[in-house]
Amino acid sequence: MNISELTREGSDGPAPFRSGAITPDGFIEEDFEAEIGTPSLNNYFQDDEETDEEFQDIAEHKILEVAGDDLYGRKVIVFAACKLPPSAQIDHQRLLEYMKHVLDQYVENDYVIVYFHFGLTSKNKPKLSWLIQIYKELDRKYKKNLKAWYIVHPTNFIKILWNIFKPFIRSVKFGRKIMYVNYLHELKEHLHFDQLVVPPLVLQHDAKMVASNKPKYPYGQDSNDAGTLPTQQYGVSLHHIKSHYGTVIPPVVQQTVDYLRQNALDVEGIFRRSANAVQLKAVQKKFNQGETVNFAVEGDEHIPAVALKIFLRDLQEPLLTFDLYQPILRLHTVEDERKVAEVRRMLHEELPEDNYQILKFIVQLLTEVVDHSAMNKMNSSNLAIVFGPNLLWPKGQASLSSMGYLNNFARLLIDNYSQLFDR
């Protein structure tokens, strides 16, 4: 297997390699942040620039990255040990502050951490006292909604470290969240591998391990094409769906949006809470087989919300298209008074008509969710964090700063719906 194989989308079934077990409950008990109101236009695309300036000395190493959502709609935070500079060249207290700053944006909802251990050496290894400080300072606020912690390429050092930490860990449940991952392709059962920010050193190390140990690799070269059904909606192109169903709005989008509009506008945390994994997979299977899903029977309004997010993220090309990725990232350089006009031009002149109609259909629902934010606690900023990485992603790997720009773009779409979409 070569490194390029690792970057293929893992939509062709779960991998059999596991070192632990995860049972996502999909529920959050903590209150969501109070509604912060609609931001002025001159705030778009600027928050991340301020963050970069505040933590420029830490952010430039790209130790910590945000990599979209996992298969259950939970935010993915990536920490790469190989990007840690020598201990003498970094202020670990500043690194901890930066970690908390990044996590604070996501910990009110379910999230997962992927830790790439390869590359941790005697030169860049932090002191044990600092690691203990991390555990103490990252209190229940950070631990409660952490649903999984994947440790990739674990070594004996990691296992020894875990034994050292056990006396400090009072929660048995927290210990069950940790999963050892021996090979990168094992992550495909839980994550969108192509959106992970995997350092080249980690890819190379994994390729060497696979070549040396020769584990059975479960994804054949042609498995995606061979397993595609004519009725399939997840993991295919919009053209594939339209050619079979004959409609611009895919049935999964139509059915989820219709149900949410009628039944879930007042549901607290709609689109931000995750859902039961078993139910989600059953719903996806029904849609892929061309069946109509009765969400009332499912008994959980978060099922259609997460099903919609997963549909968007599983598209072979993002709804906003690969071609618009760089132009959207460059919007932060456009004068504030011209941003809405430039986005309107993009949507009407550069986005394919079918994509435009689907985007308009979904964003209209999001504006209705915002209208009910007093009840559901979901303002445009909340929704933007959820939908930004599901509407657009690059062909390669996204940086943390680019994720912020995508989220801000999604917020602009919601806040300026009438100006952008009315013909």
What does this structure look like?
A hairpin with a 5-residue loop joins strand 1 and strand 2. The protein has helices at residues 3-6, 47-54, 56-59, 92-103, 128-137, 140-143, 156-165, 172-176, 200-213, 223-226, 238-245, 251-263, 277-288, 295-298, 302-314, 325-329, 339-350, 353-371, 373-376, 380-391, 400-415, 417-421; strands at residues 64-69, 75-80, 111-116, 146-152, 178-181. The chain is 47% helix and 7% strand. Helix 12 runs parallel beside helix 18 (353-371). A 5-stranded mixed β-sheet has the order 1-2-3-4-5.
Short overview:
The chain is an alpha/beta fold. It contains 22 helices and 5 strands.
| Regions with little confidence, pLDDT below 50 for 5+ residues | 1-40, 219-226
The helicity comes to: 40-55%
- The gross shape turns out to be globular
Taken in chain order, the helices and strands follow as: HHHEEHEHHEHHEHHHHHHHHHHHHHH
Regarding quaternary structure, what we see is: single chain
Please state the structural category.
Answer: alpha/beta
How many helices? 22
Give the biggest sheet: 5 strands, mixed
**Main β-sheet, spatial strand arrangement:** 1-2-3-4-5
Mean pLDDT: 82
**Number of E-type strands:** 5
Strand percentage lies at 5-15%
Computed Rg: 21 Å
**First and last CA, distance:** 50 Å
Topology at a glance:
Blueprint: H1 3-6, H2 47-54, H3 56-59, E1 64-69, E2 75-80, H4 92-103, E3 111-116, H5 128-137, H6 140-143, E4 146-152, H7 156-165, H8 172-176, E5 178-181, H9 200-213, H10 223-226, H11 238-245, H12 251-263, H13 277-288, H14 295-298, H15 302-314, H16 325-329, H17 339-350, H18 353-371, H19 373-376, H20 380-391, H21 400-415, H22 417-421
Parallel strand pairs: 2-3, 3-4, 4-5
Antiparallel strand pairs: 1-2
Helix pairs in contact: 12-15, 12-18, 15-20, 20-21
